[in-house]
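hey so i finally got around to running both of the ones u sent me last week. sorry it took forever, my laptop kept dying halfway thru and i had to restart like 3 times lol. anyway pasting them below in the order u listed, first the sequence line then the structure token line for each. didnt double check formatting much so if smth looks off just lmk and ill redo it

first one:
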Amino acid sequence: MSAIYLIRHGQASFGKADYDQLSEKGNFQSQLLGKFWQALPAPDKIFLGDLLRHEQTLENFIEGYQGVKPSTVLHSGFNEFNHVDMLTSYDAGWKNFALMAAKISQQPDANRLFQKEFSLALNRWVSGKYDDDYIESWFQFKKRCITALRDVVNQELIINPPLNSLNPTKNICIFTSGGTIAVIIQHILGLTDENSLAVIQQLRNTGVTKLFFSKNKLTIDYLNNYAHLTQAGADWVTFR
């Protein structure tokens, strides 16, 4: 049985002109994960979404890991949902995401205010009542994420079947985002959309979810492990 490690990206640059890049804290979180991984099985192959924060998380991970970078495959199916489109469809003011984020960041209780806005926008998107308002509906997003996961499993079991390979792939790392990970968890455990949203809210930056897969089975070993951050101190544990 082989393992897939779903890795959420490090902290991104909320409130900046370009959200899609890691903050200084996000860079270090990723390095901490790489260093922590020295005690874990070496990755045989890596997949990642094609967002900048996915690539930067991987590069910092490799720096901390100090090992050979394995074969790497870009797969846009592991990209996060379009949070700007989701927020803008809820409130047109979010079209200028950086400006709105900067305004909220100046408030005394910025995290709570943004969380409230984000939750309302997320629930509207997931409801399915306004699908035509979005570039990608919740249903389409879920389908994309599960298709991407199946692509990886099929490639390793059908294109490179372990029994016929001299060097079977045993450990796969996928650098992705929180929404994608939550949808995959929902798919495996049969969760409701409501429970899936609860999962999204709890996933930490650079948290790791481990899956086992074989020809007829896909299971979760553990989810949202961020021991590498708690070892460094509570200040390194972030949600976004």
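and the second one:
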Amino acid sequence: MTATAGRRRAETRKRRDYDLPTREPRLKSPRTARLLMLVVLLAWIVGTAAAGTAVVAVDTPIDAERPGAALLLIVFSVGLTHRVGGHMRIWSILAAALGVGAVASEANVLLAAAAAASAVLAAVWAIVITRPAVTVFEAVREYVLAIVVALSGTVAVAAWNAPVNYQRFNLVVLTVALGLAITVVWNLGAGLHGLGHQHLAVLAGVAVLVVLVLAYSSFVRAHGAQFITDSISELVIWMRQTFGGVPRPVEVFIGFPALIVGVSMRSRNREGWWILVFAVIGTGVLTTSLVSPGAFPSYIALSTLYSSILGLAVGLVARRFAIRDRSSRAARAVESERRIEPPRLAALK
């Protein structure tokens, strides 16, 4: 028998097992587990619809805004805790107590805490609910899902209508969300010691970009020349009058592209979770976009639409460079392995 001509290819078609230990399902019956997930999904839809009455004028027999926001707070807590393998009885009870207490007492402190908790949990849950994406279509699908989840958090924050300083509120939410995301990703991404040279370079490049964008924007606002600040203000006013919204640079150049690149890198290495830490910046900015009573929902909606479209374009370009093979010869010689993860509604750890 003669050997078949052609270049040999390494046998890497076999899918690797999941590289993190997962706990045993607490619900032994698959039917009961599916029923519970269905209840959570229905609660998320009902809560979003009820909280949405704070944004869209709808005639309702009762005031459903804050009860809907409280239901969403519980859903965010349950979904995130279940996904990261946390203690459901502790965090879900705390979230329920905070939501019920804020609705019943209407105390400013509880309303602000409930709004902040809703924004943080929604921003992080929007990231961890995603799945590894091998193709461009899968990456876009996960991208849309994350934005939809984050938007439900935006609606919840608007429904709480908490009396807060919106600049301080945004800073607190982003800080806590980043801290929570780093804690989760540290466990899912094997810490920094698991990063290879290529992935560490990508992570460092994204971190430098974040620092430069945030530092430059702060410097321009505080110490920029009058001509520059006036030009930026005129550009923003012109775009708002012409297009009805203005893209947010933090989402376009950092948060949303990191979401595309992160879910794509996770299909090969779990260190892709580290890129998704920066995606929390985008989802966190989105969840807090309606915290100010002076924010117009139509303006925020159009701004989010423009940001998501531009961020998707930037992310697809970055994805092409981030996950490409190091050389064409290596790509021909060895097929890249595909990393697997538990299903979307299962615990990651």
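quick thing i noticed on the 2nd:
The chain is about 70% helix and 0% strand.
anyway thats it, ttyl
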